[in-house]
Design brief:
By secondary structure, the chain is of the alpha/beta class. It contains 23 helices and 15 strands. The strands form four sheets. The protein has a six-stranded mixed β-sheet, with helices on both faces. It has a five-stranded parallel β-sheet with strand order 6-5-7-8-9, with helices on both faces. The model has no long low-confidence stretch (mean pLDDT 97). Bound molecules: 6-O-phosphono-beta-D-fructofuranose. Pathway: Carbohydrate biosynthesis; gluconeogenesis; Carbohydrate degradation; glycolysis; D-glyceraldehyde 3-phosphate and glycerone phosphate from D-glucose: step 2/4.
Amino acid sequence: MVNPIDATTTAAWGKIGEIRDRLSVDFRNWFAQDPQRAEKLTFTAADLYVDLSKSYLTDELKAALLELAQEVNLAERREAMFNGEKINVTEGRSVLHTALRRPKGEELILDGKNVIDDVHEVLDRIYAFADRVRSGEWRGVTGKPIKTIVNIGIGGSDLGPVMAYEALKPYVDPNLECRFISNIDPTDLGETLKGVDPETVLFIIASKTFTTLETLTNARQARAWFLAQLAKAHISADGAVAKHFVAVSTNLAKVAEFGIDPENAFGFWSWVGGRYSVDSAVGTVLAIAIGPQAFKNFLGGFHALDTHFRTAPAERNIPLLMGLLNVFYVNFLGAATHAVLPYAQFLHRFPAYLQQLTMESNGKRVRWDGSEVTAATGEVFWGEPGTNGQHAFYQLIHQGTQLIPADFIAFATPTYPLRDGENDQHELFLGNFFAQTKALAFGKTEAEVRGEGTREDIVTARIFPGNKPTTSIMAPALTPSVLGQLIALYEHITFVQGIVWGIDSFDQWGVELGKQMASQLADAVAGDADALAQQDQSTRALIEYYRNFRRDL
Ligand code: F6P
């Protein structure tokens, strides 16, 4: 892998700094002066309609950001990713989530093998399994069909499947229900298994490494719960685990060690990062829930965006422009956070999903050659679905002192076309979507506030400064394909930012230390006096507090 380029030393970086110094954002004036602004800065890719006209892009800034992309060799790095070069330097791995959604028959040779064939071999097994579960052919130990699927995983082996399951609820087979267990807090397992019928449950143990403490602990507990339920009902446990437990992993040896028949395991590969894995075998729960055809459409959506990212000209390349804009907001305007605000209740877990995607990827302080970065990286992504967020945190975006770029997402087609008297409820809802970006951009001036006859002493409190940057993303409907497109969009935005910053967006060493320490602390937590004595004073006191106050109900 070539050495990263320090973006801050490029000519384009200097130029962008000069543009920032001269920048005086005035959306009212910008739109008045340029009647083509909305048209010029709205781009389409597959089903996505992306309006960047209420962002801080100007012709000059756009050109300079695209120059920056050139100076950091973004196009070459992008090809390196798509072609399977080992761009995950610190783990010595290729980064090929884009191969997971390439059509059958295509070729990508890695270590002498066509990985596209491997991908489709696993997909075909998953589809066949999904069909068997959905049709009722796959039966539990007492001959009953599966009704509840419980996915046990964490991080990338949980967030993607949960988010997509929630997003695609209208596509879920009404005879099936999926539940998810991720947290090692025993409450998660205890609450999730309430009311589950052991005769009709299917557990999917999803773990890339099959070594993750949380997942393996929960998997053991689930198996113990399952066997205890069978015993209680006097049902023989013979062959029961094989009928009720399947696994998803890159580590099939560990799957077998756990006691799951490799026949009932779906593999993937080390070149799929956990947070990029919802479109791999990790999506098995989703493939069962929505069915093979809808899952194929989901993958098709990803692929459509991949093709756009790889081939669309830079000046119309949506992930490229959005990623570069984010760099501008972070490095030149000091934005520390980025809101993602879906006006779609079904996307209520999308911001949480994006947190792992973006923050585990770009929360780095050294470049891929080990040198320290010289500019900020990795903003905090967060959000809630509209309109709930409007009644909670929007105040700070509208009138607070921080710059918070925000992506607004909405769909033309409602799932529930309800009317409230004369009103179409989806229109009431989307009215808010349109109003918020408008209010953020254009604000309300002092003269307008006064013109409303506002009491003089509260005029300033009622002024909206406006000029807050937003991006509006629309699509005809939230289909499996569109969801795939949205996920791929953010994957590639994350990639663009990572390349500009020169970091390895595909490792996650930062989560290791806490994990190691948790296992080292086990003896102290269990009350071993020597182990406790070795702790720092704060940790020791916290553990003692726990030991004094624990009561088992
Ligand atoms: O949080 C760290 C991490 O390694 C994530 O990157 C990953 O998605 C998660 O743990 C779960 O890992 P696994 O799928 O191997 O159980």
